[in-house]
Amino acid sequence: MKEEAESPRREQAAGRMCPRDYYYDPAVFDHPADMASDVLYVVGGVYGNLAAIDQLEVLIDAERGKTVVVFNGDSHWFDADPSWFDNVERRIAPYRAIRGNVETEISRTQDIGAGSRTIRSTDSSCSSPTPPCRARDDCC
């Protein structure tokens, strides 16, 4: 017990915390379905991997029925170069997406110790000071 009292709380250690804005209010999902499909792909943790998006599109093209793709967050991470970031954004833009913790962090203006980094889009159509990071309530 003494060791526990002397060490910082796990959720407060830099890079080891889950801020409240990582969580969605369950009410945002409390509505009738607004899509229908024969095939549903739920894609998570792309982390800027364009080769993974290439392969996803090969799979989608091979489907015979109506196909819906939902990115469930963390589409960015390794794509720290602004042009690479924009390329990922363009590739996932045709699909549905929700905000993951990575998108929440990169939309911040200050590092809160949860792994934030700043990336700015080179897309001139973005009038917001934050990148178009699919954090629908935080970005342009």
Structural commentary:
- With 140 residues, the chain is an alpha/beta fold.
- Helix content is 25%, strand content 9%.
- The chain has helices spanning 2-6, 50-62, 82-92, 101-106; strands at residues 39-43, 67-71, 96-97.
- It has a three-stranded parallel sheet with strand order 1-2-3, with no helix packed on it.
- Helix 2 links the parallel strand 1 (39-43) and strand 2 (67-71).
- The chain is flat and about 45 Å long.
Order of helices and strands: HEHEHEH
Q: Which overall shape is indicated by the principal axes computed on the Cα atoms?
A: flat
Question: Mean pLDDT, as a whole number?
Answer: 76
DSSP strand content = 5-15%
Cα end-to-end separation: 48 Å
Helical amount: 25-40%
Oligomer: single chain
Question: Which value, in Å, is the CA radius of gyration?
Answer: 18 Å
Number of helices: 4
**Largest beta-sheet details:** 3 strands, parallel
**Major sheet strand order:** 1-2-3
Number of strands: 3
Q: Given the helix and strand composition, which structural class is it?
A: alpha/beta
Low-pLDDT stretches? 1-11, 116-140
Summarize the structure.
The chain is an alpha/beta fold and 140 residues long. It is built from 4 helices and 3 strands.
Considering the chains and any ligands shown, give keywords for the structure.
140 residues, alpha/beta, three-stranded parallel β-sheet, 4 helices, flat
